[in-house]
Amino acid sequence: MPTVAVMTATTSRIALVTGATQGLGLALVQGLAERLGPADLVLLTSRDPDRVGQTAAQTATRAGSTAAVQGRALDVTDADAVARLAREIEAEYGGVDLVFSNATARLSPDVDPAEQVDLQLDTSNVATSRLLRSVLPLVRSGGTFLVVSSALGTLEQLPERIRPRFAEATTLAEVDAVVEEYRGEVHAGTAEKNGWPHWLNIPSKVGQVAAVRAVARDRRERDLRQGTLLASVCPGLIDTGASRPWFEDMSTAQTPEQAAVAVLDFALSRPLDPGMYGELVQFGKVLPWTGADRLS
Q: How many structural domains compose the chain?
């Protein structure tokens, strides 16, 4: 892992975090507020305007915060809202320097997958693709765009007969199409019969990583030349209300604040390690998409 060094540009830096009023998202905002400087701004976003405003105000005045923190209401499942925020960022700041696509849905093992699949895919997958299309182009040279995913996002988490669906999807549109095919199969009650895992989180996370890889293929040469990082990241197991129902043993789980450290180290470290560009990274190491495969 390269030496961690917070960027010290004299012009203000703009950071954007989605799903940021609790859990890892909030910890990322708090960490950014501490690591960035007085001229920098962290945009804390989530769906509930009141909660966003309250959380942003509390974070801005939190001991150790140096960067400004501003709340922006954003429902990532609303295409117009995402597009509007992208336009606002471009008009107000001319671009963005750090993006953490972190929003996720809270699922329950006690609820039928067909009743939860739309919320999961719209929050984690469709929203990720929207941000890649509308916000990633606004990332300035030397900036970072990270999609928070999971170690569940490797192809090997899927049954062999399902893997080619994502493995052969080499464009963002193709990845989106696979996600929609999967959604349709869940609603039709045929997903598990056709080989998909019961847990929605696995195909969803694989889809997120596949989306990043698809976009990275086209941007790799230019981004590396400009020192810009695009990747997906696994923060490891975190003890939150969303994760507790799924894991019997949480003894090794991190707090959100602990998990945010490695994610922020990766986002802010320079120079870039080209081997990590476009990949799924956990604690400074690449988790292979499949076997020894790499994007490059």
A: 1
Burial 152-180 (b: 16+ CB within 10 A, else e): bbbbebbeeebbebbbebeebebbbebbe
Closest CA relative to residue 150, chosen from 223, 243, 78, 230: 243
Residue 9 falls within a domain, yes or no?
Answer: no
**In 3D, which of 107, 12, 15 has the Cα closest to residue 56?**
15
Split at pLDDT 50, 70, 90, the class of 11 is low
d(CA 182, CA 210): 14
The residues pairing with 15 across neighbouring beta strands, listed in sequence order, are 42, 98
> 144-193 pLDDT, tens per residue?
999 999 999 999 999 999 999 999 999 999 999 999 999 999 999 999 99
CB within 8 Å of 17: residues ≥ 6 apart? 25, 28, 29, 32, 42, 43, 44, 45, 99, 100, 102
Residue 269 lies in a domain: yes
Sheet holding 96-101, edge to edge: 68-73, 41-46, 14-17, 96-101, 139-148, 229-233, 280-282, 285-287
Q: Which domain holds residue 48?
A: 14-287
The structure's pTM equals 0.93
Closest CA to 183 of 118, 97, 108: 118
CATH number, position 242: 3.40.50.720
